[in-house]
């Protein structure tokens, strides 16, 4: 029944997209090489674009690995002596309900994005969102048998993902030129896919996999802090030297995001 309902929803979504969305074709006559060259020049000329791409690539790599590893992580936290492996109709973990709660948590995160933007710019609060995400994925490393704690941390991680998507979309529209945006992000999908494929093909232990995710999220958080610093420096360069405090810079950054939105 759930899959049948999903088909109807997808059909409705396709109808809305076809009838209400307009396509951005860019320069249809420009050669592909020109698009890649233009995107590469954008990355080289603006450090903020490079840092933003690193943040997205590393965060998404950890997210995609998590999507494939949350099931064995929660299953491994169960007491194996009480699992009836012959009962296929009643699995030890209700995957459908768990996934549904993940989606609710993600939706809550996306809805919280606008609230967070009332108090700070995405460049500011995303620093802490990425750190929280890293802390959540560290639970399977240190508490591999604490199923309830692990599940709770996974819900918080999904909440962080919900905040991540609109925040990244906002920052991409702010820093990356529209005509090169898709190609720029495709460059950063190369390391993203490489990381995911290597981790999955090597068949590492679950603990090692989550350690890798935490490591990548740590690097992502570092890049996010650097991006925030670069954003403040950009605002400071537009203001009179030595006359703008850190608090005023934060307010100006927040105001610029509100204006773009």
TrEMBL record:
GO molecular function: molybdate ion transmembrane transporter activity
Presence of the UniProt keyword Aminoacyl-tRNA synthetase in the record: no
Coiled-coil annotated spans: none
GO cellular component, one term: membrane
InterPro entries: MFS_trans_sf, MOT2/MFSD5
Stretches that traverse the bilayer: 6-28, 49-67, 95-113, 125-143, 149-171, 183-202, 208-227
Pfam families hit by this protein: MFS_5
Keywords: Membrane, Transmembrane, Transmembrane helix
Family annotation (PANTHER family): MOLYBDATE-ANION TRANSPORTER (PTHR23516:SF23), SAM (S-ADENOSYL METHIONINE) TRANSPORTER (PTHR23516)
Protein name (record): Uncharacterized protein
